[in-house]
Amino acid sequence: MISEDDWSTLMNKPQRDDRGKPLVLDQHQLEHVISDQLGILEEYRSMLAELRHEIIGEESILSGNGQDCLEELKTVVQNEASKLQELIASGIGHVHNAVTDATGKPSPPGTSEDAIDKAGDDSGGEGEGTEVLQLKLDPPEEAEVIQQNAEFMENVAVDD
């Protein structure tokens, strides 16, 4: 058993929380602190209820418009993919023509620009509004320039 004096000493000793601050022990102050804390908790509850209501509203809007939005996005992606296919097919054809013109070799059967366009272009049209640059080289003139450059380099190599 504890004596009455020891009990009084323990009760008069200031009580502290885990941060070392004195605990509120006065009944009037405790009621005030508790009502403040309950008020704050009620505000939080109402804020959460409003947020929940807004989220439910947005989910219902999204569920209705979501499918339409996905269809629009799918259409845009398909259009962009077909444009890219057209550009790639057009670029391959131009590179093939430039290489053919530069080397003077005829293209093998089935690799003409039309065949390449037909293989890679589902839209049926070429890149409208794009300027096509064709590299036109005359093989005999090109061979002559190469020969002149080779002779020049031989002379430079001999001088060193």
TrEMBL record:
Span list, region Disordered: 1-21, 98-131
Protein name: Charged multivesicular body protein 7
Taxon lineage: Eukaryota, Metazoa, Ecdysozoa, Nematoda, Chromadorea
